[in-house]
């Protein structure tokens, strides 16, 4: 690949083998280079291709206005998610997260910090993403000699979640409300206090997170395979109430989202609910 335009020391405009215009990022990628020079593939850490006109405009603006160090930090966050969790984030997260990190550091240097109104939901509904947000804070603190509050970890988590969903940040709030409302149905059906920090609830929240994504964007049912053993376990425990609660959730989703749950969807909900109730009863003994 040859350089068509140098955007900054770490970003260039070029073309791929299909003659599509792409933007390539890499530490020191364009240092000492000029137009038509070959790009060193060993320095590349991100390629944007192909992209919409709107995304290209936002990306170019971000590149021109932002220190490349923030792209590198974003890359570290995304790489860790890919390597440890096998999570691929949408390309848009590079733009939004990089811009957010740069803006946050700029504010922090002036002693200005934002409060995150979704911090509780993030800690409890998206603990994995929040934990990566905390890890990212350490990168920022070390790099810029700052001390961010935990609220900032929540903001970073929101960008990660939006990257997972493949949509804008507004979808994060919708997914949070979905998980919150389903959890309320379980909580009030059984009149219990749910332990949001438990592994059992975390698994339930993760199930709801991916169910939400499938419901909103795939609109098709996922095949989970043979459920006979799990179903048998629920039946043997005579836990018909978990099944009834799952039916209430089915009715809510049908009415609110015009989406019909399959029998497997219902049974998986019942299994998760059964485990939450079993945990609750075990702790009450």
Automatic annotation (TrEMBL):
Keywords noted in UniProt: Repeat
InterPro entries: BglG_antiterminators, CAT_RNA-bd_dom, CAT_RNA-bd_dom_sf, PRD, PRD_sf
A biological-process GO annotation: regulation of DNA-templated transcription
Domain PRD: 65-170, 171-283
MF terms (GO), sorted A to Z: RNA binding
Source organism superkingdom: Bacteria
Coiled-coil boundaries: none
UniProt KW Cell inner membrane keyword: no
Keyword Repeat: yes
Name under which the protein is recorded: Transcriptional antiterminator
Organism name: Lactobacillus hominis DSM 23910 = CRBIP 24.179
């Amino acid at each position: 690949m040859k350089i068509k335009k140098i955007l900054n020391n770490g970003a260039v405009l070029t073309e791929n083998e299909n003659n599509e215009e792409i933007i390539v990022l890499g530490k020191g990628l364009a240092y000492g280079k000029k137009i038509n020079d070959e790009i060193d593939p060993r320095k590349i850490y991100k390629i944007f291709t192909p992209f919409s006109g709107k995304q290209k405009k936002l990306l170019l603006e971000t590149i021109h206005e932002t220190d490349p160090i923030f792209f590198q930090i974003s890359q570290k966050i995304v790489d860790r998610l890919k390597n440890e969790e096998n999570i691929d984030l949408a390309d848009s997260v590079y733009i939004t997260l990089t811009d957010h990190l740069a803006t946050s550091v700029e504010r922090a240097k002036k002693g200005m910090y934002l409060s995150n109104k979704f911090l509780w939901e993030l800690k409890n509904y998206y603990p994995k993403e929040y934990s990566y947000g905390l890890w990212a804070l350490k990168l920022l603190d070390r790099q810029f000699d700052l001390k961010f509050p935990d609220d900032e970890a929540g903001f970073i988590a929101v960008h990660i979640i939006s990257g997972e969903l493949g949509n804008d940040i507004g979808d994060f709030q919708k997914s949070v409300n979905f998980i919150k409302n389903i959890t309320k149905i379980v909580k009030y059906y059984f009149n219990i206090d749910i332990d949001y920090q438990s592994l059992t609830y975390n698994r339930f929240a993760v199930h709801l997170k991916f169910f939400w994504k499938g419901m909103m964007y795939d609109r098709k049912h996922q095949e989970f395979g043979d459920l006979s053993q799990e179903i048998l376990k629920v039946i043997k425990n005579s836990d018909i109430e978990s099944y009834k609660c799952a039916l209430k959730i089915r009715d809510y989703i049908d009415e609110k989202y015009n989406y019909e749950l399959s029998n497997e969807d219902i049974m998986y909900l019942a299994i998760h609910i059964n485990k939450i109730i079993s945990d609750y009863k075990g702790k009450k003994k």
